[in-house]
Amino acid sequence: MSPHKVAIIGAGAVGSTIAYTLVLKNVTTEILLVDVDQAFLEGQVLDLSDTASVSSCKIKSASLKEAGQADIILVTAGAKQKEGESRTSLVGRNYCILQSVVEGMKPIRSDAIMLMVSNPVDTLTQIAQELSGLPMAQVFGSGTYLDTTRLRGLLSHILDVDSRSIHAYVLGEHGDSQFIPWSTASIAGRPLIDIQEFQKMDKELVRIKVAGKALKIIKLKGATHFGIGACASDLCESIILNKNQIRPLSVFVPRLGCYLSMPAKLGTTGIKEIYEIPLTEAEEELLQASALSIMSVLSRV
What we know:
A hairpin with a 4-residue loop joins β10 and β11. The chain is of the alpha/beta class. The chain has two domains: 137 residues, Rossmann fold (3-Layer(aba) Sandwich); 156 residues, Lactate dehydrogenase/glycoside hydrolase, family 4, C-terminal (L-2-Hydroxyisocaproate Dehydrogenase, Chain A, domain 2, Alpha-Beta Complex), CATH 3.90.110. It comes from Absidia glauca. Its EC number is 1.1.1.27. GO terms for molecular function: L-lactate dehydrogenase (NAD+) activity.
């Protein structure tokens, strides 16, 4: 494996969890951690360096300028989502933070891949692409990858099938307007709508549980970070190893005019292809509504 440098902007719960999972995967040679709180950052670096017994990955604190020269740049910095707060309401607070981060990294390495994790991820990914000037294929967000993982986990419990064998997505906004295109969901080539257990299932309840899981976790423990940490590190691995995996990510869809989640192929150069799956008329309306919701937030920035 050729040397790879991953920069993580924001060393809090999410950023440090991504760093920790990357260390355990042992797929990158160096991790650069960046944070405005220098004392806290030093503590995180010292703590993470104690994982040397299971990984050869080196961890160091860095400046924004140094982060701008990494192969992969993950942005997790931003205001925390509060109990009962929607992700879109974070945009005002996090826009200023993102602007400062991107400007601080310039000039950004021309072939860098920028992965946005901060919320609202679709809106901030579009802003990050515009501010950075990087090609759209090199700037994408974690999108509904975690929501899709939650959906497949819940379906796995209901249908008694390994979640990795369930093909179902959450698409659109990583937020209130996200939707599940049930018409495309399948197991072993069989549409879910043809399976008896699925027909008995309360699909609206499943949607509510998936969409509301983050807020439930926040209410119980104050923050979410393990799930997104696992997802973000998996995306880094896909880039570094050129796995060409299909993941539901926040990507720019020209016909909709904004970033939102669609299945996309991810490899060394970033987003290689976007797969618009066939939708029913009702599902297409939900997709259009989701795009309008995101555009509405963008218009207020």
